[in-house]
Amino acid sequence: MVAAGFSLRGLCSLSITRLKKQMVIREKKHRLPSEYYRGEISVSYTLCLKDRKEVFVHPGIVALFIDHLRDAIRNSDCIVPVYCFMPDHQHIIVAGTNGHADTRKTIVRYKQRTGYWMSKNLPDKEWQKDFYDHVIKNREDVAHQVRYVLDNPVRKGLVDSWRNYSFKGSLGCDLEDILTGLH
């Protein structure tokens, strides 16, 4: 019901004008607070290439990205229990080894460096703006998450067994130890 002296059209346009003045466009905040990524914690990250363009099909490029990942974890108090390069995205679990570790800062550093490399060497390829992450709640789940990451090429039909997939590995630890739960 509209009050006397006001038209429904006028009321609607007045409300829309007011809303536009009050609205501030913000991206939806989907990250946990930064402290959730620090310390002795394991986080599973998925980094996707924009428009699903395939980059990780060439061994030389994958080797270069592994070197960048190795550089990103150097002096970060982090290890990578598993990484897996799919043709158009990458799965990485980053684990902090002490209270000073910051897994998110490590992955951001990696993404910045590799993004810069792509801009200079593969200008038609780039990372999507953000990435997906999942904080692994307890140590027992790490081996389960590692197996899940390793099975990605199998689920996509690229290989019959994850052991036959070339673009996977670990940094700073032994993958077999992780799989048997010795981490």
Radius of gyration: 22 Å
Overall pLDDT level: 85
State the total count of DSSP E strands.
5
Strand order of the largest sheet: 4-1-3-2-5
What string, H for helix and E for strand, traces the elements in order?
HEHEEHEHHEH
In total, how many domains does the architecture comprise?
A: 1
At CATH level 3, the topology is: Alpha-Beta Plaits
Q: What characterizes the major β-sheet? A: 5 strands, antiparallel
Low-confidence stretches: none
Count of DSSP H/I helices? 6
Strand content: 15-25%
Quick overview of this protein structure:
With 183 residues, the protein is of the alpha+beta class. Helices cover 38% and strands 18% of the residues. The chain has a single domain, classed as Transposase IS200-like (Alpha-Beta Plaits), CATH 3.30.70.
Helix and strand arrangement:
Blueprint: H1 8-22, E1 42-48, H2 59-73, E2 78-86, E3 89-96, H3 103-121, E4 132-136, H4 140-150, H5 152-155, E5 168-171, H6 175-179
Antiparallel strand pairs: 1-3, 1-4, 2-3, 2-5
Helix pairs in contact: 2-3
